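Notes, p. 3: input format for complexes.
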Amino acid sequence: MVRVIVVSSGKGGVGKTTAVSNLAAALAGFGKKVVVIDANLTTSNLGLHFGVPLNRPTLQDVLKRKARLEQAIWTHPAGFKVIPADISVSKVMSAKPNQLLSVLNRILSDADFVLIDSAAGLCQEALAALKAADEVLVVTNPELPALTDALKLIKFAEEYGTKNIGVVLNRVNGKSHEWSDEEVEKFLGAPVIARVSEDVAVQRAIAEKMPVVLHNPGSRAAREFKELAARLAGIKFSSGPSWLYRLWGWLVR
Ligand SMILES: Nc1ncnc2c1ncn2[C@@H]1O[C@H](COP(=O)(O)OP(=O)(O)OP(=O)(O)O)[C@@H](O)[C@H]1O
Ligand SMILES: [Mg+2]
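Output follows (253 residues plus magnesium ion):
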């Protein structure tokens, strides 16, 4: 059965789009049929993480019935499908986010996973995405401002009946001032299901318009994203001995 998962956060810039792009690539690598939707209609940039050509029809065009859904779907070389949003200022918020559900219903039959990249916070478009999905993955950083906003988001998810799969702690440095898993779980009342390290390989990959799981599969963040994807898919996966991956990461640099 298809799983419709929205990747959300309270605070902006915590790593939602990075998580979506890497989960899509990793799940496709595990043989899953994946569709990714950029539901961040005002500050969209998922397409930039994949190198989607800019002159194509977008989700806004579909929502405004200026293009058919099939025309807006772009297939990544790794096999997953992307419905990008428009990055031009003129089309910002010209589409109604609450029509997202009708778009979703039309792609469900052709996917194992539908991943929705949400806008941050509790704005109209973020809440529309939260409502439209069955499950939510909460991305945050291990620090108080991001966690406080994550808590608000979790309360809205509860209100909408969107099942909270768990929390992804992104940009973890392992420093003593950062919150531990236990502290985060107590504060948010939700399990931490992944920790993704602060890793410059992520930024290098974004500069090349690629998910890090494809650009530098041996990097630490790539292995952590693959482990999260395997967990979501219920697949047994071990990224292997870390020294081997560090060596690989060093060789491909
Ligand atoms: N694990 C990581 N290691 C290093 N840098 C990271 C990591 N994750 C994200 N980043 C950096 O943080 C930036 C912001 O990430 P991203 O765009 O995924 O956040 P977002 O939550 O989608 O933001 P927005 O709320 O604006 O949509 C990325 O462009 C990248 O440079
Ligand atoms: Mg984003």
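The longest strand covers residues 163-172.
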